[in-house]
Amino acid sequence: MVSWKTAQASLLLMSSLIVTASVNAQDEEFNSDPWESVNRKIFNFNDGVARVILKPVAKGYKAITPDPLEKGLSNVFGNIEEVPNVINDLLQGKPGQALHDGGRFLINSTLGIAGLFDVAEKFGLEQSDGEDFGQTLAVWGVERGPYVVLPFLGPSSVRGVASFPVDSYTDPTSYIEHIPTRNTVKGVDLIVTRAEILELEKLLSGDKYTFLREAYLQRLEYLENDGEVTEDEFFDDFEDEDY
Q1: Digit-coded pLDDT (tens) for 175-197
Q2: Which of 34, 77, 124, 127 is the most exposed place for a label (fewest CB within 10 A)?
């Protein structure tokens, strides 16, 4: 288990990062991607790793995994994510949503056999878009900060990076004590997630970096505003980009 002192130190570090980012953002007109030159280099590195390693593995996974099992594994990891959803629902002052997500977790963990089957949906408890601590910070009024691309982890924001320690503490898989098992679970989760976006890659057009950046930022805004951003707004913004 993570000690309280470690949690306190991480939260202090997180707070200092947030304050620094907020002050810097106020000093000049806000630019969502001021570090684009560095971000592009990291993006190209990540894209290369994905093409050489992750994409072939994901394709192999989809080729050999029966559709029902593939869906079941996706459900299992979706069910695990309900735990941080509930925590962040409460931190954001959304008790109704916390009951909804908590109900899904309880039903699917029991009747759904550890989440293999989405039984809760049959009871009218549909899966939500999800919550993380970055969204909680947004509710608390913390500015998003610039867009960043992290090695291996992909797109984020300064606020998102600052939320990583808390997101790690609320992730149930982080508490698997047997390290090989924990790494296996996280590896399977990565493969399942990568397999799910194979079809979405066919929608990519124009400059890949810009497309994915705008898609990420619009998706982030959508989540921060609980679904108030429309799909048309994304495409309007994207079409305004000069390639």
Answers
A1: 999 999 999 999 999 999 999 88
A2: 124
